[in-house]
Write a structure and sequence with these properties.
Blueprint: H1 6-15, H2 23-26, E1 34-35, E2 43-44, E3 52-53, E4 65-70, H3 75-82, E5 93-95, E6 101-103, E7 110-111, H4 117-121, E8 123-128, H5 140-157, E9 166-168, H6 186-193, E10 202-206, E11 213-214, E12 220-222, E13 233-236, E14 245-251, E15 255-262, E16 273-279, E17 282-288, E18 298-305, E19 308-315, E20 325-327, E21 329-334
Helix pairs in contact: 5-6
Length: 335
């Protein structure tokens, strides 16, 4: 649990002092939230006064930047940590994967988040739940909630809505951090900030879609379950072999895509079927219980996919659990 917050500890050390995190403070219950007076949609849970500088911005400092961070942990862990007087670190806002927003430092005050005093005095810091190195944390709800905060503060303080002024923590001069990382979709985020949206796109590939589905002869064909998508579906015995069924998509642009799967749910089918998503950061595997939620679209998550015409999603046979693995239909939607 302590390791989960190590990037916050490193940020505190970069600010100017070492701290120790105890299990008791990590598990502390946050103060009951009130409404924020700076930004209506946010809850107000104040950080410890030991973790930021009282100020009167923009009288004493101009606010020129917004800095985007990733917590390397959970929404609640960041809220708890910023309330700990030993943390010596804070941010103005914290955003959850589900789009909830908590404000912890008033915009007029200086949060300790950038590891650079000049940038601390001139910026609004926004933390985002999740991990830089993992797919699936930067959700549509999070992008929308964060972009709404940025629209608010840029309007209020006259900050240009461009990448010179809305930056990642990794772009702060002297930064030793990598957040928000390559999985953060800057193109889409800035479109949301500026009120533009990417072109809509969705594509569905079924196991019968010509030229878009491939599977070896080890995969049988069945129409047993009425929960199937289309006329039939494919099935195979689980085995530790590289013999995936693949779905090919013509991905229009490198961007974020919601990946959904359809399968029939039958008692005796596999409870841990591995779906493989080919992302810009490498293959990501999501396990799905195919004994539940059949006959409808089930979301695997939102992932960054590269542009091109290629096998983007697969159903693997490589699982230790018993029961047929099922390959029926997959849908991608640009978000």
């Amino acid at each position: 649990m302590v390791a989960t917050l190590s990037p916050l500890l490193r940020r505190a050390a970069a600010f100017g002092g070492g701290v120790a995190l105890t299990l008791g403070t990590l598990l502390a219950v946050p103060t009951a939230a009130q409404a924020s007076t700076d930004y209506g949609p946010a809850a107000w849970v104040p950080a410890s006064t030991s973790n930021y500088t009282n100020a009167s911005r923009e009288s004493d400092y101009n606010i020129n930047y917004v800095v985007i961070h990733t917590i390397q942990g959970s929404y609640s862990s960041a809220i708890n940590w910023f309330q700990n007087p030993a943390a010596q670190v804070s941010a103005h806002y914290v955003v959850s994967k589900g789009g909830a927003v908590t404000q912890m430092v008033r915009e007029a005050d200086v949060a300790w988040h950038a590891g650079n005093w000049t940038y601390n005095t001139q910026s609004i810091g926004i933390e985002h739940e999740g991990y830089v190195e993992q797919d699936g944390w930067y959700t549509e709800a999070m992008y929308q909630a964060s972009a709404a905060i940025v629209r608010s503060v840029t309007s209020k303080y006259g900050i240009p809505r461009d990448r010179a002024h809305i930056i990642g923590h990794n772009e702060v001069p002297g930064a030793t951090h990598t957040d928000p990382g390559s999985r953060w979709n800057w193109t889409y985020f800035m479109q949301l900030v500026n009120g533009t949206t990417p072109p809509s796109w969705t594509q569905t590939v079924d196991n019968t879609t010509a030229g878009r589905f491939t599977a070896s002869a080890n995969w049988g064909t069945s129409s047993y379950s009425a929960q199937r998508y289309g006329a039939d579906y494919r099935y195979a015995n689980p085995q530790a072999v590289s013999d995936a069924a693949w779905y090919k998509f013509a991905v229009p642009a490198t961007a974020s895509y919601r990946v959904e799967v359809w399968y029939p749910a039958v008692a005796g089918y596999n409870t841990s079927t591995p779906y493989v998503v080919v992302t810009t950061g490498g293959n990501t595997t999501v396990q799905v219980n195919q004994q539940a939620n059949g006959g409808k679209w089930v979301t695997l998550g939102t992932f960054t996919l590269a542009a091109g015409d290629y096998n983007a999603v697969g159903v693997s046979r490589w699982t230790s659990t018993s029961g047929y693995v099922i390959a029926d239909a997959v849908k991608l939607t640009r978000v």
